[in-house]
Amino acid sequence: MADESKSRYLQYLELVTGPLEEKKRWRQYKARVKGLPDNYRTAVEAMERYLMHFGPADGAGAMTMYEDLMELFERSAADGTPIRDIFGDDPVEFVEAFMANYPLGQYRTRERNRFTSAIERAAQDDRKQ
Q: Which SUPFAM superfamilies does this one have (predicted)?
């Protein structure tokens, strides 16, 4: 009976706060970020802010992306790869290409294409009138 009550409580808690496993993964990710050298941590935190605004919004897909980001930066830090060598000359181009590798990042590309096509169709209708 106690296990059943706990299960209901956890179900309710996850309904209100989101999946507990995702929160655990997020805390683990943030601990890994803290373990990076200062310049790598600064770069990861900047990319994280960008991804929070423009990246995938779902928990599992986003967490996979952040964990992959950590793999990249932990390896780069271990190898001594300069930050500019990771991002290249255009950090936005890098982060957009990085996001495109994840399903919800591809959603943004599809929506951009859909939007561009709709504007093109509307512009063609202007020429007909």
A: BH3980-like
* Number of C-beta neighbours around residue 109 at 10 A: 12
pLDDT tens-place values along the chain, 129 residues long: 455 555 776 665 555 555 567 788 889 999 999 999 999 999 999 999 998 888 766 666 788 889 999 999 999 999 999 999 999 999 999 998 998 887 665 666 677 788 888 888 888 876 666
Q: Which residues contact 76 (CB under 8 A, 6 or more apart)?
A: 40, 86
Domains, the chain, in order of start with CATH, read: 17-128 (1.10.1900.10)
